[in-house]
Amino acid sequence: MIDKTTLWIVIIGLGVGSFLLRFAFTGFVGDRQMPAWLLRHLRYTAVAVLPALVAPQVLWPSATGGEPDPARLAAAAAALAVGLITKNVLGAMVAGGVTLYGMLYLLG
Amino acid sequence: MTTTTVKSAFLKGLADGAPFILVIIPFASLFGLIATEAGLSVLESLVFSLVVIAGAAQFTALQLLQEEAPTVIVLTSALAVNLRMAMYSASLTPYIGSAHLWQRAFAAYLTVDQSYVVAISEFEKNPQMTVPQRVAYFFGAVTPVAPLWYIFTVVGALVGTQVPDSWALDFAIPITFLAMIAPMFRTLPHVLAAFVAVVVSLLASGVPYSMGVIIGGLAGMLAGAALEKRLAQKGAGND
Q1: Do B138 and B212 fall within a single domain?
Q2: Mean pLDDT, to the nearest integer, of B216-234?
Q3: pLDDT of residue B161
Q4: Which pLDDT does position B238 carry in this prediction?
Q5: What integer pLDDT is reported at residue B211 of this predicted model?
Q6: What is the rounded CA–CA span in Å between residue B90 and residue B97?
Q7: How many interface pairs between A and B have CB atoms less than 8 angstroms apart?
Q8: Of B74, B83, B224, the CB nearest to A47
Q9: Which residue of A has its CA nearest to B77?
Q10: ipTM, 2 decimals?
Q11: B200 and B230 in one domain?
Q12: What are the angstrom distances between the C-alpha of A30 and each of A13, A20, B27, B92, B228?
């Protein structure tokens, strides 16, 4: 049983901490000019952090107990390929979803 | 004139964020379910989602709370999972840093994976957007996400049923992120950044506190920036 005092300390602490992480730059830096080298690195935040976040989920999905799954690998490849070629986000999502369910159905 | 463009920016954000509805509903329901199973009341589960509004960090905290880990460890681990939010914040700052403070405070609270990736890809694609348009777009993009996060935490806590595993909705998250990211690979440095980030995050996946994501992300950013600089120098040298 989770102790109620601990629970509230965690909820409030995590809430305040998360807000400060999110506010760190948008809030505290604001419209002050950031150095060119930092801006150059920040241009790659999205294309680096999000692939780093999903790569383990694609290769070792928790739903299959961490075993690589052909349906999920194919779905990820389809979403990526269609997104790269067409630059169409919705098209890429549909391609990933159709591939996932098609493969899951075929592989039973 | 300005009002209409700001309004249409909000609506465009709303439309672009809409596909995430499919992701948020099962994820939030699962949190509500697991929270109540761990002994939290419906109200406590809702407050958790309202105050923290970060899926992965909430799941981490809940699991460690159940294992009766020391409070400091619970907080450190969950905040480490959320460390990427500071990177998102830094990445958004050149675009919305001059907005009103209250708007930036709201945007900070609402900075999640989904709102970030939708907004940053639009801001990069349309550099002529004004700051009020960008802020409106950001709030539009998060509108289908945040309310559903709260509502379905409560639904999951009350109903106590889970979407069957066979629906494979776990994989909606990777698919939506990959679909959002792929069109952003415009230059060789972007591709290199993603490639290095993936390889390093996989190698570092055993590092505790989910730090593999941060290590991989930083490695990718360093690689992308280094190649960009190199290509620019080479280009300048050829002139």
Answers
A1: no
A2: 95
A3: 67
A4: 57
A5: 87
A6: 9
A7: 293
A8: B224
A9: A14
A10: 0.90
A11: yes
A12: 24, 14, 32, 10, 25
Q: Which of B141, B160, B184 is the last residue of a domain?
A: B184
CB atoms within 10 A of CB A62: 9
Mean pLDDT of B69-79: 91
A27 contacts in chain B (CB < 8 Å): 89, 101, 104-105, 108
A68 touches chain B (CB under 8 A): no
Domain count, chain B: 2
Chain B partners within 8 Å of A71 (Cβ)? 168
- Mean pLDDT over the full length of chain B: 92
- Reading the block at residue B135, the tokens are 């802020």
Dump pLDDT digits (tens) for B13-45: 999 999 999 889 888 998 999 899 899 999 999
| Distance from C-alpha of A63 to C-alpha of B141, rounded to nearest angstrom | 28
Q: Is A36:B170 a contact under the CB 8 Å cutoff?
A: no
Report how far apart, in Å, the C-alpha atoms of B175 and of each of B107, B167, B180, B222 are: 25, 14, 9, 25
Q: Is residue B2 pLDDT above 70, yes or no? A: no
B116 shares a domain with B202? no
B239/chain A closest Cα distance in angstroms: 22
**What is d(CA B237, CA B239) in angstroms, rounded to the nearest whole number?**
6
Residues of chain A with pLDDT under 50: none
User: B211 with B221, same domain?
Assistant: yes
Residue B1: the pLDDT is 47
Instruction: Give the structural domain span for B212.
Output: 185-239
